[in-house]
Recover the amino acids of this structure.
């Protein structure tokens, strides 16, 4: 049985984590963590969502076929988000209200 409280705490960075050895050396000083409960790989000391979106727009998708940058309007991003949602719904018994 999945403990939703522990899962939520993992997502929020409030649970026990293990630092991946040498991750700071490979990422320019940012520790990459693995949550002990869920196995979620995360960075506890995250950048803001605006900074991340800007970096993805300007570095990763800079030469993209899409005029939109890293937004939810790009089919690639829609498929990624749909995949994540379907995985969550198949593993966790959540009731969505629409």
């Amino acid at each position: 049985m999945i403990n939703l409280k522990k899962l939520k705490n993992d997502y929020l960075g409030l649970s026990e984590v293990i630092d991946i050895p040498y991750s700071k050396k490979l990422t320019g000083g940012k520790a990459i963590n693995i949550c002990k409960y869920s196995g979620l790989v995360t960075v506890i000391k995250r950048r803001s969502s605006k900074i991340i979106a800007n970096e993805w727009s300007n570095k990763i998708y800079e030469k993209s076929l899409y005029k939109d940058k890293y937004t939810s309007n790009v089919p690639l991003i829609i498929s990624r988000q749909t995949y994540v949602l379907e995985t969550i719904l198949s593993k966790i018994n959540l009731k969505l209200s629409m």
